[in-house]
Amino acid sequence: MGMLARLHWLAVLRQVAIPLTGIETLAVLLEKTTGRDPLPDWMDVSIGIAGLGALLVLVVAETLTRTLNVVLTADVADLATRRRLDEEDRRTQQRRRERIENVLEGSLPSVAFQRIADLHTGRTVGFEAVPQFGTGTPEPWFAEAAEAGLGVELEVKAMRRALQHLGDLPEGTYLAVNCSPAALVSEQVSELLLRYDTARIVVQLSEQTPVEDYARSRAAIDALRRVGVRIAVDDLGAGYSSLRHVIAFQPEIIKLGRVLTEAAEEPAQLMIQTIVGLGRLTGAAIVAKGLRDARTLDLVRDLGVDAGQGPYFGEPQPLDELTAAADAAGTP
Q1: How far, in Å, are 105, 107, 137, 195 from residue 132 at the CA level?
Q2: Among 39, 142, 165, 285, which residue's Cβ finds the most Cβ atoms within 10 Å?
Q3: What whole-number percentage of the chain has pLDDT above 70?
Q4: How far apart are CA 66 and CA 11, in angstroms?
Q5: For the CA atoms of 10, 69, 1, 14, what is the dihedral angle to 10 degrees?
Q6: What pLDDT shows up at residue 124?
């Protein structure tokens, strides 16, 4: 029985108890006034018993009513709170979606490029495209877009902005663009990449995002390879799957995460040596991220790392600034 139904029946009991109690009270008053009992003994006893029972029912009914009212009030308040929180969550999601939609329709993201250099010769071998959203890092924007169901759309726009500059980059260099597993398997990404010189494109699959379906991802990677696109596993050692991406996807490039390259401890060095050995066996080039100084560069180079990027070679810059710096240095 529902709570409202219970309150209804308690109200009925109260309506029955009150008249019975009233009859007994009236009989007592008449007896005191006239000096004689207006009711037969059997009826007087019956009404007395009924009155006492009615009084008991009334007391119980009042107690239960108050208790159920408290419970009902709490349930109603809890329901109102849940509805308010749901509405606030809905509005938050709507604001996020509108913010990402505004980005998709506007000029953001812009793109900066970070140089990737051969650690033995210093020659520029490639550039990583880094989306820019004004201030802060790009990761929160892509996370918010994914929550709003627009993650792939934002990634595709960032890739398009980067690939538009592919022809402006020095000849013989490649352009690395970041790609989540969700975007990797979408037709939007494959259709976009086919519009450009695929031999100069490297798709970086970040290890910080889990792969939901390895078989489907591998099929998408095989299709990209057939048109000349190379695959890089990004931020190795920093995310969900450790070496699983390397084993499953057999990338042409393995990029060591900062958690490895910035650590001076022996375990990190042993890990780098292990990955370098794996790269030698599979034919993958090893790139170290987060290189900040000559000491770290020398360390990873001595461990067998092929190339690197980071503040030592320059922060991400707009293409015009990057080109001017390269011209001033006399290097590609």
Answers
A1: 15, 11, 7, 23
A2: 142
A3: 72
A4: 12
A5: 0
A6: 96
- Structure token pair of residue 145: 């877009």
Task: Over range 231-248, report the average pLDDT.
Answer: 78
CB-based contacts of 48, cutoff 8 Å, min separation 6: 24
Residue 179: CB partners within 8 Å, gap ≥ 6? 155, 159, 189, 203, 204, 205, 206
159 exposed, middle or buried (CB, 10 Å; 0-12, 13-18, 19+)?
A: buried
What would the pLDDT profile of 23-65 be if each residue is shown by its tens digit?
A: 656 555 555 566 665 556 666 556 566 656 665 666 666 676 6
φ/ψ bin of 314: left (φ > 0), alpha (ψ from -120 to 50), beta (otherwise) = left
When pLDDT is averaged across residues 303-330 and rounded to a whole number, the result is 82
Alpha-carbon dihedral sign for residues 232, 235, 239, 244: positive
pTM of the model: 0.73
109: cis peptide before it, omega within 30°? Answer: yes
Q: What is the band of 330 on the pLDDT scale with cuts at 50, 70, 90?
A: very low
Residue 40 corresponds to which tokens in the numbers above?
Answer: 């037969």
Distance, CA of 328 to CA of 259 (rounded, Å): 33
Per-residue HEC secondary structure of 265-312 comes to CHHHHHHHHHHHHHHHHHCCEEEECCCCCHHHHHHHHHCCCCEECCCC
Determine the Cα–Cα distance for residues 168 and 318; give it in Å rounded to an integer. 12
Token digits of residue 19:
């008249």
